[in-house]
Amino acid sequence: MDDEQQRPDHGPLAGFTVGVTAARRADELGALLTRRGAAVLHAPALRIVPLADDGELLAATKQLIDQAPDVVIATTAIGFRGWIEAAEGWGLGEALLGRLRTVELLARGPKVKGAVRAAGLTEEWSPSSESMAEVLDKLLEEGVEGRRVAVQLHGEPLPGFVEALRAGGAEVVGVPVYRWMPPEDIGPVDRLLDATVTRGLDALTFTSAPAAASLLSRAEERGLLAELLAALGHDVLPACVGPVTALPLQARGVDTVQPERFRLGPLVQLLCQELPSRARVLPVAGHRMEIRGHAVLVDGDLRPVPPAGMSLLRALARRPGWVVPRADLLRALPGAGRDEHAVETAMARLRTALGAPKLIQTVVKRGYRLALDAAADTKYADG
User: Fold this and answer.
1) In what order do the strands lie in the sheet with 323-324?
2) Whose CA is closest to 351, among 372, 382, 326, 322?
3) Domains in the chain and their CATH numbers?
4) Is beta strand 280-284 parallel, antiparallel or unpaired with respect to 323-324?
5) Distance CA 19, CA 5 (A)
6) pTM of the model
7) Cis preceding-peptide flag for 157 (omega within 30 of 0)
8) What are the recorded GO MF terms, alphabetically (predicted)?
9) Nearest to 74 by CA among 155, 147, 152
């Protein structure tokens, strides 16, 4: 799934390319994006250690069974279910459930509460929202001095939460459900990085903080961190499923967009709003041309454009009146040769890609002017 997926010719994301860094539920996110017209480039920035093979989780489970904590906090439904299933596989299921019945069990939100009750347990308290801040406020209000608090982690370190408990005097024990590790094959991640820094993507999605941190770390190893941050700061939209996921990016000064509800569906809907709003709409010669991502919509019809032609079109569209100095046009054609012939070739490819209405180019004294004409043939002339 690391290659670009085929996209339909319609939908709010038609013409845009979106990067997916998720390891878990990547297929679901990719399907949601492609159904709305996006092309998807997927590279799992991390891999998940199978619970049954996770020695750290086994050790933490045995420790909690042998030495009861005062409080256990279940933070995710899938993580809690996975923990119970892994314990059953180790022959520790009944012992773990028995221990959890003797402690103060808190569940972060309705979904986690459902998982707790499905295991035959009853939570002592759960917030109506899914905010860890509410859980923290309750614990600190009760007082945690001298108490032993076990926190079910789900690959994410919950920065600030654990530190606040320890500052309040608690002994905090982490239960590392679904630990993350770097991917075994780093090739797809490198291709995703290359696509990001070269602006081959229009948006990059993150569904976990470790994935964001891992991508930043890999960029730093390759000497691409500054380029990655520049791309995410201007041309490639960084979209995170929630505020915890965004923390590693925000720590590097990257502003992100996040849905109000921290789910994949709302994340995709947010992209459906944000990306089209960034498209350049140009009414030309009675036609509506919209430059979006790596394609052009002409009167609602999607027309893919070759990379060199797209670079040229973007350079032209950035200037009022479509007048661009010749040097700027040549710089917009990396690898295509910086001469007049390269510009003519790119123009010809644009004409082929866009079809009717025709693209007309005219050389003017200070640069090139680009216009569309539905009837006239394309001509090139000195002006």
Assistant:
1) 323-324, 367-373, 358-364
2) 372
3) 17-46+183-277 (3.40.50.10090), 51-178 (3.40.50.10090), 280-373 (1.10.10.10)
4) unpaired
5) 11
6) 0.63
7) no
8) DNA binding; uroporphyrinogen-III synthase activity
9) 152
